[in-house]
Amino acid sequence: MRCEICGKEREFLFLIETEGTKLLACQNCSSYGRVIKKVREQQNNTASGPGIRTLTEQTSKKPSQPDFELAPDYAERIRKAREKTGLTQEQVAAKIYEKESIIQRIEKSKMHPSESIAKKLENLFNINLFEEVKNIAPPAPKGTADFTLADMIKSKRKK
Fold first, then answer.
1. Cβ contact 103:93 at 8 Å
2. pLDDT tens digits, residue range 62-83?
3. What is the mean pLDDT of residues 107-120?
4. pTM above 0.85, yes or no
5. Alpha-helix runs per DSSP H in 7-148
6. Structural domains of the chain ordered from first start
7. Dihedral, CA atoms, 35, 36, 42, 46, nearest 10 degrees?
8. What is the C-alpha radius of gyration for the chain, rounded to an integer number of angstroms?
9. Which residues, including other chains, have CB under 8 Å from residue 81's CB and lie 6 or more apart?
10. CB neighbour list of residue 135: distance below 8 Å, 6 or more residues apart
11. Taking the CB of residue 122, how many other CB atoms lie within 10 A of it?
12. Best CA proximity match to 124, nearest among 88, 78, 157
């Protein structure tokens, strides 16, 4: 498989998220984003025929589990739940063992909560902060399958 950033062939890649975009990157390039999971390419000799390549995910999740992302209105959900329970930001922070300033920043959408903080808030307020992501990939344009970000940067430098 090829790294979508540098174009190098690798046995396994990492699915990373950088600036809201998910890319397959080698270990060196994975530092340019947040690693979501490790992906490995395997030869498949089953009913689909020999030599057909499939991707397998190396995660702790079951393959049938959907992916989840933080809801766009997470701050409003947290603030409304806190106000509904009558707790102050200071009290919420104490209950989940975090700083009050973190709760303030999260409620003002100035900070995305980490997964652990989001889970603590979900449990405290009995709310959902994550939404299922539908992975519908648009078809790749013809003739661009081997074109990587590194190729694009090189072509821009030539101009």
1. yes
2. 444 557 788 889 999 999 999 9
3. 90
4. no
5. 74-85, 89-96, 100-107, 115-125
6. 1-62 (no CATH), 69-132 (1.10.260.40)
7. 180
8. 21
9. 121, 125, 126, 127
10. 67
11. 17
12. 78
